[in-house]
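Anyone opening a protein record will find just a pair of labelled lines. A complete record is shown below as an example:
=====
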Amino acid sequence: MSPYHGPLSSHLRVYEPLEAFSPEERARMEHSLAGREPGRRGLETAESEAALGRIISSSGDPFPDDDAEFTRTVTIDGRTLYCPSQLVLRAGLAAESVLTTAPTPLATVLLPAPARAKHQERVDRIASEPGTPRINTRESLWGIPFSWFVLFHEQDATEVVEEDDHVQTVRITTTWAKALHRARFAVANLALAAPEMNLLDELTSLTEWLEEFHPDSAVELDYGAVADRVYPDESPTDVLLGIECLAEGDMTGAAAAYRRLASRWIPIRQLARAS
């Protein structure tokens, strides 16, 4: 079966050392890693096929169960770091968003009440565990938020995954310390130069999220299937340049950087409304 991609989705992930997780989370990660095909390719395929299976299931229950969890790993300087998918928690948050934004008849069809109640039991069980659960993954559909690019520079480690002359994804990885420093730098400069920008609010929220994680963590931007439409991509450089220009009062330079970003990403976002 070919991997199911669905809408063009991209992910921002934080990988933490094993000691950063609760015993309960560690047990879930060990279970998810057991018997899985090694490597990212096998994991991405298994996760995509599981998602497709839930969508086409005759049960009418679109929610992932406990066995639907996956764990990604990266090795940096000889140390393995972990990013659990936390699909149960993330599906619960996504359901709340649908229920508050979609028309009630549509939400009822997409998320039947019996399925919601059953899934809420899973969420409540995890929420009752010691410690406050952190969500290690953020997902964006139909484009990458400009705030995410602030965390990365062009010299960061970059992996380009290609197959059959197509870019399957691009993954950029940096340390938690660098990502947080870059986010704080951008927040400080935008607060002075452009306090009215939506980007400042997004970066403030992003910074607060990053601060929750272990200082030995790594941060990864995974373009997903959108990479084939935009790579090679200079968005991290354009975002940095735009912020620096705003800080220096160079409105012409900032506008030029934004135009380059807009020309690259607005067509992607318009695909969400394409018939």
About this structure: The mean pLDDT is 92.
